[in-house]
Amino acid sequence: MANALRSITLRRLAVATVLVLGAGFALAFFYAPEDADQGFIQKIFYLHVPLATAALLGWIVAAIWAIQHLRTGDPKYDARSYVSIHISVIFGLAVLLTGAIWAKGSWGVWWEWKEPTLVSFLIVFLLYATYYPLRYAIEDRERQARYSSVFAITAGAFVPLNFLAVRLAEPLIHPRTFSSTGGLPDSMLFAFVVCLAGMALLWTTLVWFELDAKSASGNLSKIRRALEATA
Amino acid sequence: MTPLLALESNTGYVAGAYLVFVLLLLIYVAIMAAKLQRIQRELGSLAELADRPSGRGGGRNATQVGDRDQEIQAVRQGGQR
Fold first, then answer.
1. Which H or E run includes B21?
2. What is the ipTM of this complex?
3. A55: domain CATH number?
4. Which domain holds residue A86?
5. Measured between CB atoms, does A109 come within 8 Å of chain B?
6. CA–CA min distance B18, chain A (Å)
7. Which of B10, B18, B75 is nearest residue A40 as measured by Cβ atoms?
8. A93-125 pLDDT, tens per residue?
9. pTM of the entire structure?
């Protein structure tokens, strides 16, 4: 999979992201019908749910990279795990903000503390927010990478457990993800799947972009050190 | 609330949600662009240094060595900003 991914250039990936996400949003607004219950505000669904899905899957991907890092000791896997968490945290912030806007429009409140779906996502988000102070509190690069990987695996295991716990809990007002999308009409489901694919592509593009920037910065540091040594 | 009013207020929420997403994306891209610009600047400085004769066996004097050290130091400081 890594080789297949490497063969695709970042530029192609970015173009595909713009096309698929643009098509998804266009389908959401101009093809998918308005929801009978919620009306026009349900259009937030095509943004909010793909963002949440990409963020949660991204945290699991970060855990897989972290396992690879602990197995091989290769720092490139630590970098991948770090960047995956970073982009998923940004997506997570977008989920919380768009969810709050949707909640205000639909339920009349920005937040509902008794709703397990909302609170559990906030807990997962805050858990990953602690990744940064943990990582940067450790100066030694090797220890930093190792401890960060252990964190990424532990927190990554918490994500599906959390998802399962929410599914088993009694819903208050928030619909259950995927059980609710299963009952969608075909046109809505099609728009949702295209938006989900677009969001997955956006996540991959941003991860790739940041990894490239990190790699360039690392290479520059190496050249600088070499120049210092010859000076 | 009349249906028209409901539609108008809902439009604002939908626009707000999509704008928040675009804004977050723009902030991220702006931060990354600033980082890439810094890398580009540093790369330019290093390329300039690399283009100059190294002086090894080329009769480089003490003043030239000192200048090069200062330039490397300046590049290093630029990279740490």
1. helix B3-51
2. 0.85
3. 1.20.120
4. 12-207
5. no
6. 7
7. B10
8. 999 999 999 999 988 899 988 888 889 999 999
9. 0.82
